[in-house]
Amino acid sequence: LSLAALRGAPSSAVTARAISRAMGYLRRVQVPCTAPTATRFGLPFQGGQPANPLASVQALVGIAGTLPAPSVAGTSVVGTRCGDPLIQQVSAYVARQVLAGKGAIPSAYEDGAADWNATAAGVVGLAAAGAAPGAVTTGIRALGRNVNAYVGSGSTASPAAAGTLIQAAVLAGAAPRSFGTGRTNLVAVLLATQRR
């Protein structure tokens, strides 16, 4: 998110250098092209560690640009190669994670569990990058079936989750005021979390 914030800041030599350094760091720690396909192009939380889906989707949001992102037409990332741009490589990794999980990025902390936060951020990142429309659709549909598992409801609703899901819905072309199989009004859920 820091990278996304820098991209949204007024242009200056200082911000340009900071963005360049951040992108260079991500390139250096990225899982190499020689890795197995499942982890190829992913990003770790720290250099020398294995690819992590959550770290990769968070980086993709920053690489893709500022938030809120414009809704853009998607392009395929199938056949992404070693010499392709970082945004395309990380998008390919995130798309593989979404599609392999039938719409849910797996949790890095609990075997067999879905990470709905990573999935929503992945949809935001892919849509903002204009990449992998099939993975965006698959991810947003899975999120639509699991709104309560991710956002909660009533007094247990998470404003951060609701806000992220609103952004994912808008970027994926879904209606945030009638979202998913339960036709949840995510805007109303978010507003109900305000403390007075």
What is the fold's blueprint, element by element?
Blueprint lengths: L1 H7 L4 H17 L23 H12 L21 H15 L15 H14 L3 H13 L1 H5 L7 H14 L13 H7 L4
Helix pairs in contact: 1-3, 3-4, 3-5, 4-5, 4-6, 5-6, 5-8, 6-8, 8-9
Task: Describe this entry's structure for a reader.
The protein has 9 helices and no strands. The protein is mostly helical. The mean pLDDT is 90.
Separation of the first and last Cα atoms = 28 Å
* Outline type: globular
Query: SSE string, helix = H, strand = E?
Result: HHHHHHHHH
Outline the biggest β-sheet.
Answer: none
Low-confidence stretches: none
Overall SS class: mainly alpha
Tell me the total number of β-strands.
Answer: 0
Measured on Cα atoms, how large is the radius of gyration?
17 Å
Q: In percent terms, what proportion of residues is strand?
A: under 5%
In round numbers, the mean pLDDT is: 90
Please give the share of residues in helix.
Answer: 40-55%
Q: What is the tally of helical segments?
A: 9
